[in-house]
Here is the input.
Amino acid sequence: MLGKLIKYDLRSCFRKFWVLWAALAALGVLNGFTIRYVLEKGQLGGFLTFLLGILPIILMGVLVIAIGIMALVYICERFYKGLLGDEGYLMFTLPATTAEHIASKCIVALILEVISALAAALTAFLVALVYDPSSLFEFLGQIPKWLAQIEFPRGTGWLIAEFVILCLVVIAVSNLQIYQAIAIGHLGQKHRGGLALLAYVGINMAVSILVGLLGDRSINRFVGMISFSFDETGLHGVVSSIAGGLGVTLLWNLILGAVFFFGTKLILDKKLNLE
Amino acid sequence: MATELVKCMGVTRDFGPVKALDGVDLTLESGKIVGLLGPNGSGKTTLLKILNGLLQPTSGTVLVGGNKPGPLTKELISYLPDRGYFPDWMNVGDMIDLFDDFYSDFDRQKAEDMCRALELESGRRIKNLSKGTREKMQLMLVMSRKARLYLLDEPIAGVDPAARDFIMQTILTNYNEDGTVLISTHLIGDVEQVLDEAVFLQQGRVVLHESVDSIRERTGESVDALFREMFRAQAWNGGKDDAR
Here is the structure.
């Protein structure tokens, strides 16, 4: 059932965001043209320089920020309206488990965030591509040569993979934290939105205190490990130390994610009370 | 032979100090149309939500098809809530796809035929449909399933007489005759003719569960008349009695 839930959550997500992603890409192309035009023409006069050189860049920046904010609002709204509003009468009577509902929302939110980030990166690429394609391809052609000249320490590939996984896990955990806060807000009879916000702040404070209590010693040990590695074993040691540090961070986030996931599931299983 | 489909044993549900259900014991068999009848606030919706797994009872046990409410029982139940539940981003086709994907007992052809009869094209956005059309579509989807148990919460409340006829017709011509239909309502007159059994709920308690024929035979009056008698509220007369 998880695959089917994801299918409909993705459908809802793409219907809302594809226009925004396409608009961002279009603005990237437009910016490539306008930047090239302004730089080629040199003196255009104040207004034209603003209109062609600055305004499209501002619009692109505003759209990137708007997509970020809309993604955040969408993630909150889809969970709140989709499961705890009137739509909950449909979703919670489908033959799916609560865990599948939460997982579906979380996976689709992650996909939305990754695609939005990729859309922003693609836009920057499009600006460069349209502005000066030959320089871009020349630059891209140089990258393998530069990489070939660098002697990467053993395990660098694993380190990068670990970092990417950590980023994805951190984003997923932040979504699960939002769901946990909304679920706690749902326990109240009134002002559920306000309670959810308070719960979110409360969770943040609790996590910060916990990290303060547990984390300082670990971070100091990690920094010590890096220094030790520099002294004793060179770059290979540094890579393995960083990998170890990332591993600890990954484990911590997985624990947090599990707490938020099962905490949300518990509330929705035992205390679901659709208005 | 009739088989036990729903079993509630001592089901209680509290909302703070209020007892919405108070020790409900109820057994429903397959192949019946049952009226869950009671005045507003008697606990009808709460009981339906508990049968669906949308609410947990404070105490007591509920079994549907021998299982506690969960994904297994949700496959058996086709539920019409007392409100619209369509996601506003969906169109008519999305909703049919969704039911088709999730319910193995969903008859897609029947749903599409009913939509065509209402001139609902697949691409129509649900949020652009009128409230009445959305309600009809919701009912059509629910009744396009060959479910073991239909839970219909106030399907005829707040609609005009013509729409009531459409709703009752849709229910009666499409339900799975091997299954059970539990209709919650306080508009007894409109459903009495189709009921096999009546369950009267009062302040969260089952005060009567009897076949309609037996009620008529025993009391010599209709279910509607008996309901009015049992649940008659005294209108406030401006305090004249107190002044006397």
User: Anything to note?
Assistant: The two ends of chain B are 59 Å apart (CA to CA). The longest helix of chain B spans residues 161-174.
